[in-house]
User: What shape does this take?
Amino acid sequence: MTRSKYLVLCGLCGVFALPAQAEMHPSLGFSGVTGLIDMPSGEQQSDGTLSVVKSQFGPIGRTTLSFQITPRLSGSFRYSSVKDWFTNPSDGITTYYDRSFDLRYQITQEGRYVPAITVGLQDIIGTGVQSGEYIAATKTFGDKVKVTAGLGWGRYGSYGSIGAPFGDRPAVDFGLGGKLRTGQWFRGDVAPFAGVEWQLNPKWSLKAEYSSDAYVEEAGNRATFQRNSPFNFGVEYSAKNNLRLGLYSLYGSEIGFSAQIVLDPKKNPHGGSLGPGPLPVTASAAAKSWGPNWVTDRGAQTAMRDQTQSILAHDGIMVESIAISPTRVHLRIRNTRLDNAPQAIGRTARALAATMPASVTTFEIVPIAQGVPLSTVVIRRADLEALEFAPGQDIAMEQRTQILPAPGVLPAGAILSDSQYPRFKWGLSPYVATSLFDPGKPLQADVGLRLTARYDFAPGLIASTSITKKLYAGIERSTFASRTKLPPVRSDASVYATEGDPAIERLTFAWYAKPGPELYSRVTVGYLEPMFGGISGELLWQQTGKPYALGIEVNYVKQRDFDQLFGFQDYSIVTGHVSGYYSFGGGYHAQLDVGRYLAGDYGATLSLDREFANGIKVGAFATLTDVPFDTFGEGSFDKGIRIDMPLAFLSGRPTQKVSRMVLRPLLRDGGARVDVENRLYDTVRKYQETDLDAAWGRFWR
Assistant: This one.
């Protein structure tokens, strides 16, 4: 055994021997996962952390998105590039691009004598170029030093092997990619790695490591750089709480750098909302007297409605109707600004406390979306007054609040708000459309203006449109278009992107209704999305207070012309899905869609999401249909990651706008669905009991 191998093995044993005294913040490595420089560590990021790491050394670049799914489980999506990979390319491209997914699970968390130990699987369904497995252990000493040691297989077992305890690593023809290679896991040569991190002060830290990655392809077979040494060294600087920069010496021949952006969805970067504060709760005795005849005085009740609207307008909450009896008020509202549903309910309750006569002791608040009542939130006035400054006010108010089904019809004597219908709204804003992962140009973007308009004829009857005009056309027609064996329902995306200018993204007429106490319906007709137009119908069964829901959707659609104006192509199809939804609690949601897709294939899509109280949502989806993998093409089946980022979280200003990013390694025709706007489940569930409870902490804010 060489001296370097001996030292590494001693380090691996040593991390179990000494007690930890303090915790240092886990850092990220070149591969974008929690680690040292180019080697992983046994730590995990804090629960829910979302991170992006951009790293580069020599010809090798990596961009990695990671998410801490649970306190012990994390996942990563990586996009890598290696220059000079192809020495005699026929198409002029010399850079190799690769996509890979990782999973890491922490077996033990660090204790006084026990290190943090993590098992990792790298590149589990990609081409296999990046594939490797490892067991890493990390121990903290004092508040300055962390030591990591581990054993690696695959890439991580390619330098300094100490044997193959679980047998040879079988060669796998990855073919089209996208398949699990379980037969390779923890097989073949195993090699030790180790490293140390020294935190000089809260801003600066030093790192050193011994790497077990020989870069067999990059430094060996392809000779894209020289690997002269297994030792790497680096210095990192924490520029801000969520930004970390690093400079490194790698493999005795290269200088590298990295930029790490870390976002904790549980912590608001602004410390809270920058919008106006809530109105104090007005006690019944201090409420304005309306005289003894207000119950029969229509003018007095109209004045109450107008005063309530005047208060709520500051928060972007619109009064749709009000019905007042001697002891109860039924108020229907439309929240147009606040991004938190319980906060909108709390602000509305405060307004009613200020405007309702003292005899009105029960507030029924009914939120409306797309003209449809979603639920009835019942709050007792006495509870609102008693708990405003009470300890544990959030939990106490939540326990005393009732969430009931919303009636489909207005109560007798309801007073509608003036000038609510018909209603017209429009906006003009900049937009950026991106095209990712094309082998010729991995990142392309169009920049332009988007005109949106909406006309509400009556509750639930809505016409809307979205039109774009490019100012900068950066997306080019792909020269690597899929030679699809399926109808090109998505593989012509670059053609639509290049030929649609100006483009009618959507032009629809929609009817939303509530045919039963727990039933919701939608019918949408028109140009549904940039590639398809037609008619879409949906029915959702959602019980208030239940974590599950069921839905069915049927669409008849026809493919639009590439210019995205008014014409259609010849291809048409009937698609549809039966959908099941379930909320596990803690922000975890699952959705299963079973049915027929745009290319005529049959199958199912499973989606798993984690949603935080502030609206940030991170999820993944995968679709398997009856299309064989070789017919589907590269990637074998449709899969991806999606992130919803509320602009209110980033800006601190109240707004309901959300930026959605969907990362698909490849966009193919199998497993494609119609992209219909405002599907029912996400519209309805925000004001159901399960979601209200999850976000109830902002009721009093």
About this structure: The mean pLDDT is 90. The longest helix spans residues 298-312. The first strand starts at residue 50 and ends at 57. The radius of gyration is 29 Å.
